From TrEMBL:
Membrane-spanning intervals of the chain: 6-26, 33-53, 59-82, 89-107, 141-158, 188-207, 213-234, 241-261, 267-283
Localization per record: Cell membrane
Protein name per Swiss-Prot or TrEMBL: ABC transporter permease
Major localisation: membrane
Membrane topology: Multi-pass membrane protein
Keyword entries, A-Z: Cell membrane, Membrane, Transmembrane, Transmembrane helix
PANTHER family in the record: ABC TRANSPORTER PERMEASE PROTEIN, SUGAR ABC TRANSPORTER INTEGRAL MEMBRANE PROTEIN-RELATED
Source organism per UniProt: Sutterella massiliensis
InterPro entries: ABC_transp_permease (IPR001851)
UniProt KW Transmembrane keyword: yes
């Protein structure tokens, strides 16, 4: 029972950064913007959050630093792709490479450093419930915040007028512009939201999930989040399932190693990525369904004169 509770708890913890990043990706891709730089933003969020917390002793300031660098990189991406009409694919890849390299440079003196003592986690009263408390209520507040965030994304997209406008911008920006909607401003806002989420996800990795700084510590989670949203056909519920699937398989590899099961560590390290992709491919095996759900203008530059 204790092992099962530990695996459930660890699954929620491991799936949270993916869920936070994916929530932002759903929003900016629904607006028609494809940002392939999520991995770089997450790494920059992680290193800035870790360095800030190490310098100030404040985890709150660390999370704010992660959010702030995400906002700054999002503004940079929006300036080039929406303001200067640069190719979204090229700009996103450049941002991913830039974030990976700069985070390694900034974080070099931070490797091996230890964070200050963190306040106890969990929900008081509920975390003491046998099994359920350990499995579900012993988490950092962002674990629950990520679920609330994804629920709010679903509500915003499908239950509000603003969400309908955002989706219309992603589907037919020329028509939305003709109706008087500020397409470029809406896309900028969506990109900034997605970048802030990526920065926050990176901060969670270095302040809660590990907590430490190691070069390249996201280990491809930014790319997995992008694939997760696509294969989940931009449906928030499917994204939640995919994020926790990745987290669950990640934790199972450690459980198997702890039980002495003789599986090569290299195979176990690739298992979470392989399992997530295989399951999501099975979920979205109908290509017609993907074509019906993909935003029609995703990755396409919009100019008011076009």
């Amino acid at each position: 029972m204790s092992l099962a509770a530990s695996i459930i708890s660890s699954t929620l913890n491991a799936g949270t950064p993916l869920l936070i990043a994916a929530a932002g990706i759903v929003i900016h891709e629904k607006s028609g913007v494809l940002n392939l730089g999520i991995e770089g933003i997450m790494l920059m969020g992680a290193v800035c959050a870790f360095g800030t917390t190490l310098a100030t002793g404040s985890f709150a300031l660390g999370f704010l630093a992660g959010i702030g660098i995400g906002l700054l990189l999002g503004l940079t991406f929006a300036f080039f792709t929406i303001g200067m009409y640069a190719n979204q694919y090229a700009a996103g890849l450049a941002l991913a490479l830039f974030g990976t390299g700069l985070s390694a440079f900034i974080g070099k003196p931070l490797q091996g450093a230890a964070l200050p003592t963190r306040a106890p986690l969990g929900i008081p009263g509920l975390e003491d419930i046998p099994f359920v408390g350990e499995a579900l209520f012993s988490q950092h507040i962002l674990v629950y915040g990520a679920l609330v965030l994804m629920a709010l994304v679903w509500w915003f997209l499908f239950k509000t007028r603003a969400g309908l406008v955002l989706r219309s911008v992603g589907e037919a920006p020329k028509s939305a512009y003709a109706l008087g909607y500020p397409v470029r401003k809406i896309r900028v806002a969506a990109v900034l939201f997605g970048s802030v989420c990526a920065g926050l996800a990176g901060a969670y990795l270095s302040l809660v999930y590990t907590p430490l700084w190691v070069e390249g510590m996201t280990a491809g989670r930014g790319w997995i989040a992008l694939a997760l949203v696509t294969f989940a056909t931009w449906r928030p519920l499917r994204v939640v399932v995919g994020a926790y699937l990745f987290g669950g398989v990640t934790m199972l590899q450690f459980a198997f190693q702890g039980m002495g099961i003789g599986i090569p560590p290299q195979f176990m390290a690739m298992t979470p990525y392989l399992a997530t992709i295989l399951v999501l491919v099975l979920i979205s095996r109908n290509p017609v369904w993907i074509r019906l759900n993909v935003p029609a203008s995703l990755g396409k530059t919009f100019t008011p004169q076009s």
